[in-house]
Amino acid sequence: MKYVLIFLLFYHVTWSQKKVAFGNNPKAGKYVPIPGVQMYYEVYGHGQPLLMIHGNGGSIKDFENQIPFFSRFYRVILADNRSHGKSIDTQDSLSYEMMADDFAALLNHLHIDSANVIGWSDGGVNGLLLASRHPSKVRKLAISGANLTPEPVQSTDAWVVENEYHFIDSLNHLPVTQEHKRLLKLHHMLVEQPHISHAVLAKIQCPTLVIGGDHDVILPRHTLEIAENIPQSYVWILPNSGHSTPVYYKHQFNQTVHEFLKHPFRKIEKHAKFF
């Protein structure tokens, strides 16, 4: 009987988690006014704050494989980026720097002095800029599939960029609506930004875990370049993985990032490199 009760309890908890509409959850969702945008965000769990930042064209829902795991240990904070999801953005311009400042403002609104940060894809770009522009706000940073310039995508898969420009051209021939303006901003940003220098990376003071797949659209050598220019960094390149490591290798990703966040940064120097 005891084992039946345990099974039923486990089934109930698991089923409850599956039913949560991450990114569209009235019980967890709120809006915060930030200059130029009404930012939609959700909060799950308790503990040390952990901010998760999604990529271009994504939303809070992109972290549905991470929220149930990390909310067991952290106070998980997620937001729809400016011009994404349920966030309301009527501005004409868009940049990663604007987004990074939005997240600093969100943390201020929540009275959070510093948080751990996970960023995936363009969310990793935002994480790098948040840590460099607002260093006191980021305790530790884990990024997956981030890039410093548009070139890594262009040099790996030129067809990606060609398709983007075709899409932009097609939008320019349609009647102007708020949705078309939003899509134009996102796609222009994808092919024209970011522009993060080594000097900017050197400003990042927090321990950083830089993640990439060996078959990522972001070349592994570019992922290594990011890690090599951040003073306190680890690098983790997953074999047989593309750009969606947090999805296809969710268990490894979750556990490895959790271990990174839990333990102090260890710098291996001199003779220790032989062991």
Structure notes:
The chain is an alpha/beta fold and 275 residues long. The chain has one domain (15-152, 195-265): Alpha/Beta hydrolase fold, catalytic domain (Rossmann fold, 3-Layer(aba) Sandwich), CATH 3.40.50.1820. Helices cover 42% and strands 19% of the residues. Strands 1, 2, 3, 4, 5, 6, 7, 8 and 9 form a nine-stranded mixed sheet that branches. The longest helix has 18 residues, at 2-19. It is globular, with a radius of gyration of 19 Å. The model is unreliable at 1-17 (pLDDT under 50).
Task: Describe how the helices and strands are arranged.
Layout: H1 2-19, E1 29-34, E2 37-44, E3 48-53, H2 67-70, E4 74-79, E5 88-89, H3 96-109, E6 115-120, H4 122-133, E7 138-144, H5 151-156, H6 158-172, H7 178-192, H8 198-202, E8 208-213, H9 220-228, E9 233-238, H10 245-248, H11 250-262
Parallel strand pairs: 3-4, 3-6, 6-7, 7-8, 8-9
Antiparallel strand pairs: 1-2, 2-4, 2-5
Helix pairs in contact: 3-4, 6-7
Protein traits:
single chain, 275 residues, alpha/beta, Rossmann fold, 11 helices, 9 strands, 19% strand, disordered N terminus
Give the structure's gist in a few sentences:
With about 280 residues, the chain is an alpha/beta fold.
Global geometry = globular
The helix count comes to 11
Please tally the β strands and state the result.
Answer: 9
> In CATH, what is the homologous superfamily?
Alpha/Beta hydrolase fold, catalytic domain
Elements, N to C (H/E): HEEEHEEHEHEHHHHEHEHH
What does the largest sheet look like? 9 strands, mixed
User: Proportion of β residues?
Assistant: 15-25%
CATH class placement: Alpha Beta
